Amino acid sequence: MSLGRAALLFGFGLLIGKLLITGQMRFYMSPSLDPLMAITALLLVGMGALELRRASPAATGAGRPRADLDQALTFGLVAVPLLLATIATPRALSSTALGGVPVSRIVLAFGPGPPPSGIPPVPRRPIADFPDLLGYLTQAGENGVGQHVRVRGLVARGDELAPDEFVLLRYTIVHCVADAQPVGVLVLAQPGTAWVTDQWVEVDGMLATEQRGAERLVSIKAEQIAASDEPNDPYVSAI
Question: What domains are defined for the chain?
């Protein structure tokens, strides 16, 4: 079965290389792990080469057919995800990954207590996308209300939202998509605005707060909303 092991090792190594070269690894792993994934691909190919050297005609003997069958079934199970990953086109997570969780539950909220007073701190750099917004919220909190922001994300809707409201959705990851967590801000759009669920949009407006029950939700009073392409890195590194 050395040839089978070699084929699988070569297959996974080449698949990782393909994902890195085409830029599709970003749909699975944090870009910070690209060097490690490249090393992994090289190790897998090297292990495959070693298995090829060990390949020899199958030995015969009592009980060998059953052992060969068990190994063939194991190799087949391992080969299925390899085949699917090879032929499928990877896509970023959408609102379907919420698993039925109401979109209002993923909206960021300001901390409890009275709203702060004073002059909002100046952003370290222009707020041009979701990572910049999260960084500014960490820096300023609710004291940043009124700051101009421009962010991209997916449109997510729910029955609990008004017709002219939607949640701008992104996912944060630490290492890979398996640890992805949804995060969103409430967008207060102009009346009559209609955007398709899971469409990428860019929202230009002012950072605001919206009282919902006992919570003050992080919101954006939209001045302009435009359709947008999916960003090169659809996921946001957790901060």
Answer: 2-87 (no CATH), 95-237 (2.40.50.140)
